[in-house]
Please model this.
Amino acid sequence: MKKTKRKKFTSAGTSTLISQGSQIEGKLNCDADLRIDGKFNGSIESQGNVTIGESAIARSNITAKEVIIAGKVFGDISAEGKLTITPTGQMHGDVIASSLIIMEGGVLNGASHMEHSGTDHDSSKTTLEAFSIHRSEAG
Model:
């Protein structure tokens, strides 16, 4: 009989999902990207990107490469790259990031500190992309 080689499965790029309807409490450390659509209470440390979906509520301090908020976050965020708050996103806590994007309708209640993630901490290289956080009223 001839032996066939089997390919090894690697999970290096696999994302972690906490789906809508799920509730998790504790400390989460992950090497891959993370998406939360349910409820999470605790701390999050990710080597990848973290996305808080529209239906998500995270009562968490989050440390990650980049963070996108479309739901609600109650806690502090430290992003190596950028933090993006979408029109449905609400951030209640302090932020440290290299770049901050707040789309119209997005909410940031807290202090923000811009830090360049590279070795050169020249403040002229730090970018801030902020849009109005209040929706204009019609009529």
